[in-house]
């Protein structure tokens, strides 16, 4: 059967869009190799000094470690909350499910800047009660990130539950398994992939979160994106270009690995 | 079995933690923000009155709507062009298109904005190149203005605009296109009179997503606009952290939520949520 393929005009336009999409990502490579202390194109000689400054300047390392810590804690919290909630929805199908799921998804659809103001209100209020949990603390940031990532984790886990065969749960139940046993020994092993994906996505979203973080941190909890932001606003530091190149390479490698794995899974 | 006591308790126990967390950490503070908008600095509707009367706030609203509209048109058009190849291209073309869509999608908004600064600033790639070939003598101002903001935001939003379009293009019946070609319609005519109308729901969904995202955009306009073309989100930030005028910042946030909520309600009247994914 013949198939309907895009013609030459479509292809040319798509190539232009593809170039537009890749251009800013490619542009950071030459900038990262400039020997100058300012944001310029290298003229002649190349230098790795900006890559070295990422390792030598303790600020970068500190903020990377902080971002990892916040990402791990907030991803764990999001995943556990999303998992228990989704199990409740799937196992018991309570009334008002649609409304409850809609409520959980709110932080995903409300404009991020409004969520940021909301979380700013939350953390400044909490600051009055406890000094290590409110505004500009790493635990406060982790909690705020969980609010922002939990809708995504919930969607992923609900989607993987929706592909699960209800009859295996009915069988376990018929054989006398308790709610706890059904959840941990029957359902969860079957949605492992969805749970892991939810945890990873929550981590990545927290790792690169900036919109909310800007509102809830000032001088103590400087996450990596927050440090990049400061470098971008004041006096553009080419170390950001070096960092960007590294982040882009990691992204490309992960996506390539994922597509190889997906192809292997689909092959047999 | 539904509705027995143990079922209800089980459901409640499992669902309560997340619901409680979001009520305490999201719903309650949001109501606090609403309260701010009516009480700071003085109780009453003063902040909402200021929204209507303050020319600065109004110019920011108008600019935001204008930029959002332009960005929507640019993003949806560009997304359409690349989605056609991603969905209907040859296997190799598909892989390449997917790479070009997903790599930017997964890269952080800061890195992408930074890439545009590196390209468009006075000593950036574009100006350096144009000067070296003698096309211009003075660098062109490409960032710290609305042009830079539109370019950066469109770049960010194209991958988001792709997904609803892709789902619309995947679900259409290819035989209709082949029939049109078989009956002697030209490529161009088949595209405009058959293909595009059949992907209407995808176009609406994609435009709505892009427009709603653009309204609340913060990072890209703040970096590429350089404080000169302030949009709503940056205005909220400035009102809370620089002027401090929390009441006005809160009032603008409330208006933004209501406006976006109304747009979403409108969207779901025309398009089913499923068609967007």
Description:
The complex is a heterodimer of chains A (268) and B (277). Chain A has helices spanning 8-32, 49-56, 58-92, 97-109, 112-127, 138-162, 166-174, 179-190, 192-207, 211-216, 224-233, 239-266. With 268 residues, chain A is mainly α. In chain A, helix 2 packs across helix 12 (239-266) and helix 7 (166-174) runs antiparallel to helix 8 (179-190). Chain B has two domains: 1-39; 53-276, MetI-like (MetI-like fold), CATH 1.10.3720.10. Chain B is 80% helix and 0% strand. Chain B has helices at 5-39, 46-53, 55-88, 91-106, 109-120, 125-132, 146-171, 174-182, 187-198, 200-215, 219-224, 232-241, 246-270, 273-276. In chain B, helix 12 packs antiparallel against helix 13. The interface between A and B is large, with 90 and 93 residues.
Task: Give a brief rundown of this model.
By secondary structure, chain A is an all-alpha fold.
């Amino acid at each position: 059967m013949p198939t309907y393929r895009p013609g030459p005009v479509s292809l040319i336009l798509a190539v232009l869009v593809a170039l537009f999409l890749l251009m800013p990502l490619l542009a950071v490579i030459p900038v990262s190799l400039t020997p100058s202390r300012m944001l310029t194109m290298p003229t002649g000689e190349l230098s790795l000094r900006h890559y070295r400054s990422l390792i030598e300047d303790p600020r970068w390392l500190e903020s990377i470690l902080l971002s990892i810590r916040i990402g791990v804690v907030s991803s764990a919290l999001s995943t556990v909350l999303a998992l228990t909630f989704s199990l409740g929805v799937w196992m018991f199908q309570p009334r008002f499910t649609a409304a409850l799921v809609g409520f959980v998804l709110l932080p995903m659809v409300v404009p991020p800047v409004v969520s940021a103001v909301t979380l700013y209100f939350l953390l400044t209020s909490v600051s009055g009660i406890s000094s290590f949990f409110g505004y500009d603390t790493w635990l406060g940031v982790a909690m705020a990130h969980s609010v922002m990532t939990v809708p995504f984790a919930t969607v992923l886990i609900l989607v993987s539950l929706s592909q699960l065969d209800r009859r295996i749960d009915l069988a376990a139940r018929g054989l006398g398994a308790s709610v706890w046993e059904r959840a941990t020994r029957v359902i969860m092993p079957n949605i492992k992939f969805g749970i892991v994906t939810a945890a990873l996505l929550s981590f990545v979203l927290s790792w690169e979160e900036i919109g909310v973080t800007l509102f809830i941190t000032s001088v103590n909890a400087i996450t990596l994106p927050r440090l990049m932001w400061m470098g971008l606003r004041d006096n553009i530091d080419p170390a950001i270009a070096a960092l960007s190149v590294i982040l882009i390479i990691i992204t490309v490698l992960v996506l390539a690995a994922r597509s190889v794995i997906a192809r292997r899974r689909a092959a047999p | 079995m539904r509705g027995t006591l143990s079922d209800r308790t089980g459901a409640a126990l499992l669902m309560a933690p997340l619901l409680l967390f979001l009520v305490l950490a999201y719903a309650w503070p949001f109501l606090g923000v609403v309260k701010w908008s009516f009480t700071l600095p003085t109780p009453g509707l003063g902040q909402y009155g200021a929204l209507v009367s303050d020319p600065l706030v109004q110019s920011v609203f108008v600019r935001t709507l204008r930029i959002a509209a332009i960005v929507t048109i640019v993003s949806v058009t560009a997304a359409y062009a690349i989605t056609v190849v991603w969905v209907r291209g040859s296997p190799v073309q598909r892989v390449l298109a997917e790479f070009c869509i997903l790599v930017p999608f997964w890269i952080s908004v800061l890195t992408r904005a930074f890439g545009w600064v590196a390209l468009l600033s006075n000593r950036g790639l574009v100006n350096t190149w144009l000067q070296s070939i003698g096309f211009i003598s003075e660098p062109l101002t490409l960032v710290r203005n609305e042009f830079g903001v539109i370019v950066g935001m469109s770049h960010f939003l194209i991958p988001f605009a792709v997904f609803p379009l892709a789902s619309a293009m995947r679900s259409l019946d290819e035989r209709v296109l082949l029939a049109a070609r078989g009956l002697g319609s030209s490529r161009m005519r088949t595209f405009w009179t058959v293909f595009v109308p059949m992907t209407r729901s995808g176009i609406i969904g994609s435009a709505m997503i892009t427009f709603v995202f653009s309204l609340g955009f913060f990072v890209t306009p703040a970096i590429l606009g350089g404080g000169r073309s302030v949009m709503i989100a940056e205005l909220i930030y400035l009102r809370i952290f620089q002027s401090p005028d929390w009441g006005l910042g809160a009032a603008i946030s409330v208006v933004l939520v209501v406006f976006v909520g109304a747009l979403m309600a409108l969207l779901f009247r025309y398009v089913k949520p499923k068609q967007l994914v």
